[in-house]
Amino acid sequence: MATVRGIRQVFLDIDGVLMLGELPIPGGTTTVNKLKSLDISVLYVTNTTRKPRRKIHEQLVKLGFHLEEDDIICPAIIAREKIMQMKRPSAALFVNDGVMEDFEGLRIQRRDVGAVVMGDLGDKFSPEILDEIFRLTFSGSSLIALQKNRFWRDQGGLRLDLGPYVAAIEYATGRRADIVGKPSPGFFRGLLERAQAHAASSLMVGDDIEADIHGAQRLGIRTVLVKTGKYDFDFVSRTEITPNAVIPSVADLPKALGIEA
Ligand SMILES: [Mg+2]
Fold it and tell me: Considering the domain boundaries, does residue 111 fall inside one?
């Protein structure tokens, strides 16, 4: 990828590309400013299901980014938009308290709902909760999952993520969940719609070879993998997924795009 020609919008993953935990990864704001000076629009992308968009916006502003809250795309927001377009725009929410506010404006109830939303409930997943989700889905509500990750790691080691619980409901009901987070095609389609952009003129920059790179590639979006965040050489090699470019960090993006020598 030697030239910026043809790229009209860049989608930047947040965690692992622009920040690590609460800390900035150097070069993020400079890169964004350079892109914008060339009239390339920027949207910010995250798969987080524990923080509301307002909070992510506050964090980025604190780090020196100039953006609107609407410029951030996350699974809860995509789920909310999907539900708003339903005939019965109502939902039963089984999500982390942290993202509740992203569903504002929806009719939230526990019976006769258009959609059941499964999110990151962590320790709150109990047999009773799973039965409730099962019954609602079985009786005809759409099943929306904010993500379908298999597992994650905290200080105590590996833990079950949301995916196995979603799989349990799918198995019991014989129905498929609509996964709205990365790497689902729906997420990237939503992104292109929001940017009013074509895949061919878009670029996804991420640290996750599967969620960011493979997800975007399947829609024909060009990709750059950064070696910060969760990047792991051995894991990337095993996937046999090939991004258009691999760069040390977001600071190197202008150079990779041919914006600077
Ligand atoms: Mg990331």
Answer: yes
233 class by beta-carbon count within 10 Å (0-12 exposed, 13-18 middle, 19+ buried)? exposed
46 Cα to the center of ligand 1, angstroms: 7
* Per-residue pLDDT tens over the stretch 11-36: 999 999 999 988 999 999 999 999 99
User: Which tens digit of pLDDT belongs to each residue from 154-188?
Assistant: 777 788 889 999 999 999 999 999 999 999 998 99
From ligand 1's centre to the CA of 3, what distance in Å?
A: 24
Claim to verify: residue 191 and residue 139 sit in the same structural domain:
no
Distance, CA 22 to ligand 1 centroid (Å)? 13
Ligand 1 center to 173 CA (angstroms): 32
Chain-centroid distance, C-alpha 191: 10
- How would you classify the pairing of strands 23-24 and 19-20? antiparallel
Nearest of 208, 191, 190, 171 to residue 14 by alpha carbon? 208
The number of beta carbons lying within 10 Å of the beta carbon of residue 253 is 27
| Whether residue 43 is found in the same domain as residue 104 | no
Going by C-alpha positions, the residue among 205, 231, 203, 237 that lies closest to residue 219 is: 203
pLDDT at 150: 84
pLDDT in tens, 204-240: 999 999 999 999 999 999 999 999 998 989 999 999 9
Q: What is the pTM of this model?
A: 0.88
**CATH number of domain containing 98:** 3.40.50.1000
Half-sphere exposure of 153 toward its Cβ, with a 13 Å CA cutoff?
2
Task: Specify the length of the chain in residues.
Answer: 261
Last residue of a domain, one of 124, 156, 179: 179
Q: Are residues 19 and 100 in the same domain?
A: no
Q: What's the CA-to-centroid distance between 111 and ligand 1, angstroms?
A: 36
